[in-house]
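Rotation project, supervised by the postdoc (A.L.). Task for the rotation student: set up a whole-complex structure prediction and record inputs and outputs verbatim in this book. Inputs entered:
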Amino acid sequence: MSETILRADDVVKQFALRGRHRGTIKAVDGVSLEVKAGETLGIVGESGCGKSTFGQCLTRLVDVTSGTIQFEGTDISKLSRRQLRPVRSRLQMVFQDPYSSLNPRMRVGDIVAEPMRIHKTGDRRAIQARVADLLERVGFDASMAGRFPHEFSGGQRQRIGIARALALNPSVLVADEPVSALDVSVQAQVLNLLADLQDEFGLTYVFIAHDLGVVEHVSDRVAVMYLGEIVELADAEELYASPAHHYTAALLSAIPQLDGEAEPERERIVLTGDVPSPANKPSGCPFHPRCPAATEICRTEHPVLHEEGGRAVACHHPLPLRVLSSAERGA
Amino acid sequence: MPAAPLLEVDDLRVAFRTRDGVVNAVNGLSFTVGRGEVLGIVGESGSGKSMAMYSMMGLLDNPNATVTGSARFEGTELIGMPLPKLNRLRGSSIAMIFQDPMTALTPVYTVGWQIVEQIRTHEKVSSQAAWKRAIALLDEVGIPDAARRAKSYPHEFSGGMRQRVMIAMSLACHPSLLIADEPTTALDVTTQRQILELIRDLQAKYGSSVIMITHDMGVISEIADRVIVMYAGRAVELGGKSQVVRSPRHPYTWGLLGAIPRPGQRGQRLATIPGLPPGPHDDQIGCPFRSRCRFAMDECSEMPQLRATGEAADHLDACWLSGDARKSLRGEIA
Ligand SMILES: Nc1ncnc2c1ncn2[C@@H]1O[C@H](COP(=O)(O)OP(=O)(O)OP(=O)(O)O)[C@@H](O)[C@H]1O
Ligand SMILES: Nc1ncnc2c1ncn2[C@@H]1O[C@H](COP(=O)(O)OP(=O)(O)OP(=O)(O)O)[C@@H](O)[C@H]1O
Ligand code: SF4
Ligand SMILES: [Mg+2]
Ligand SMILES: [Mg+2]
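Outputs recorded:
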């Protein structure tokens, strides 16, 4: 089995709330997981469940309140900005919004070159050559370097963001909703590109998205978050074919199916109510107010993430697992 | 014999005069919506879905926009109708809901008050009766504790609940046509599911017709009876939902469906459509898809008309490819 390259232990990220609803919220509430070298770990969950905040903790774009993050064997959770510098080159983040994440006043070539200039990776000529190479790698002509972001479409800008993230030869890319703003045909181009780059450079991805179909497509393993916690983590195939957590099952059953392709055995579960705010997180299991299987213990006792045979679930009454046929295991 | 359609749109065109020339946002769109029917309009960003609807509803208050063609609602022409009359129609017989509910809700009034206003501008009822109805509507769209929540302000609701409020408001006067422009695009799947079920239930209960605009083929599959696939301001394919989703005929629809990640094909390459959609200043000559189409031929430099090319008379597409060759050609894309 490949080794762990990135590892979170009991990571908590707390925010102070100001104004009318004073207090604190835990946007990430005790998350532990391992990312293995070369894999794609998907993270899904509804809006506000803490996916982006966790991604920012992993890449140390924010300080963590407690817990540790180990990257390539070193605890990076308490490093200062300066100490983080060498780490940054190996651990990069790609953002959702291809419109606002690129500086509109900078030329594309400078945008891609900027991290190399900051890290002084080489002289002007070397950097220029590398920019040309990166632009070509993400499907542009090197002559595009002189253009400005507004001259590009959404998908093209997302590719520019990817070229920039690759500039320092990272080993891990944390991609926060990298295709959510794109139309499906453009989304397909970017997903194919990410797959090619992974093959070519042996990259490790943490792929954050709310689109369950996209996450299934790209991920080796998938973590499902709810109110700042991981409620289930499993191999992508197994999780999608046989979810153990009632929340995962509800999410999967809500995916609109293409006509003629509905999976008959997937029972439809319509969740009532909205995700509660992390500011007043329910007692016991955070999912219990919406869970069709909740009992008394769910209201009082917090279920811990329990691992068995590579599958982890935090539920007092997990769904029975279906054993997959070899055909379902597929590739 | 089927009854006359509720809405008949014929050769609808929307053009914007801009500094860099004319932008043709909608290029001769024709379709009908039957009574009680759900018509899905699917297409990628910029394909003209919203502009087609806005132009019919008099919501294009842009002096540089020109709207031509015809849109007859229950036999009455909407294009060119004086705005006050159109405004009366919108909100009573025709209702619209948008992706961002805040475009229709005013932040400074309670949601109950806004629904009451909506009812009272279109009907002569007492304020008390209108309040009662507003609360009943909020209850019907699934707002818990409706009587109390009616006194809340929009910002006190979640995105999904705001969308419910907007649906409640749109239903206030029992519209015969509901136009929903990407009502679930900004929502989580679980909330999207709730809203789709709500629209479907209400549609069944009141027998209203619905135009559902989306870029999600899955959403179309779940809710539409018939589907229009739009590309560059035109309908390139039109047919029954299963016809379009299961046996699409236009190369653009093939690409669109091929690009969707599907269960059980993890890690496989997705089909892509090479290139980009035509810019806003498209030349209006020839098939708008030809620069990206891998099957383009000489004929394609002339505009193909929307017509039946296969066995089903009600499954139309605008492509020059021979009807018989379609199946095997589609195989080349996947
Ligand atoms: N800087 C901040 N200050 C206070 N609260 C914050 C801050 N950033 C995030 N939050 C809160 O933390 C929670 C988690 O937010 P986060 O953006 O991580 O969610 P997400 O899963 O990425 O959601 P989405 O799918 O909408 O992007 C939310 O309740 C959010 O309001
Ligand atoms: N005021 C305007 N001036 C010039 N062009 C415009 C204007 N408004 C819209 N357009 C153009 O009209 C075309 C159609 O836009 P429309 O908003 O209808 O697309 P859409 O299919 O609804 O896209 P989306 O899925 O992004 O909502 C686009 O190419 C757009 O650039
Ligand atoms: S008309 Fe020609 S260019 Fe257009 S879709 Fe058909 S084959 Fe392709
Ligand atoms: Mg986020
Ligand atoms: Mg639109």
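Student's summary: DSSP finds eleven helices and twelve strands in chain A.
Supervisor addendum: Chain A touches chain B at residues 46-47, 153-154, 183-185, 187-189, 191-192, 195, 210, 212-214, 216-219, 236-237, 240, 250-251, 253-261, 263, 270-275, 328, 330-331 (CB under 8 Å).
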